[in-house]
Amino acid sequence: MKIGVLALQGAVAEHIKSLEQAGADEVVAVKWPADLEGLDGLVLPGGESTTIGKLMNKYELMEPVREMAKNGVPMFGTCAGLILLAERIHGQDWSHLGVFDVLVDRNSFGRQVDSFETDLDVKGLEGDEKYRAVFIRAPHIMEVGDKVDVLSTFHDRVVTARQGHILGASFHPELTDDVRLHKYFLSMVEEAKK
Ligand code: GLN
Predict the structure, then answer these.
(1) What is the tens place of the pLDDT at every residue in 30-51?
(2) Does ligand 1 lie within 6 Å of residue 45's CB atom?
(3) Which class is domain 2-193?
(4) Domain coordinates of the chain in residue numbers?
(5) Residues 82-111: pLDDT tens digits?
(6) Contact at 8 Å (CB) between 82 and 45?
(7) Which DSSP letter does residue 47 get?
(8) What are the helix (H) ranges across 49-194?
(9) 174 flagged as catalytic
(10) Model pTM?
């Protein structure tokens, strides 16, 4: 199982480490279109979605990544990565990859100084323990399409959701030692390979 982590900006090394701990055979940093070759799944990290989107266009990654998503390659977007996947962004008439049937609102939990951690119930994870989630200028999902499953909410706001092979989380799962969400993504990759 070969997983890529989009490595244009953000917590790339942390995602690579979490994926390795979760049991991925091979994890590679993706900077160029050629790095997408042979990937079974792709993680889009947090950072700043406008910047990452611009860099994806500059490095000619937007089109091939969109194609991969349309062809069923599993993708996991966290924070800015979720915004990149979304079909609709609140207050904006354009999107980035536009492959995830959700409407997202950016920076919807306050400013940088208001970043926070909380314990969530996330559907589908191993065990009963709550999942510690780190929110940093996080987006939330305002609306989901028919085929989207809500996996967790925080104060009635959707913060984790899945649509078949696409997974999105508002928070930063790579910043804690709990790799259950990365394991969940790897199980989606295994499912897709069958
Ligand atoms: N606020 C950022 C954005 O709109 C996302 C923040 C993050 O990824 N930690 O892109």
Answers:
(1) 999 999 999 999 999 999 999 9
(2) no
(3) alpha beta
(4) 2-193
(5) 999 999 999 999 999 999 999 999 998 876
(6) no
(7) S
(8) 49-58, 62-70, 80-85, 180-193
(9) yes
(10) 0.97
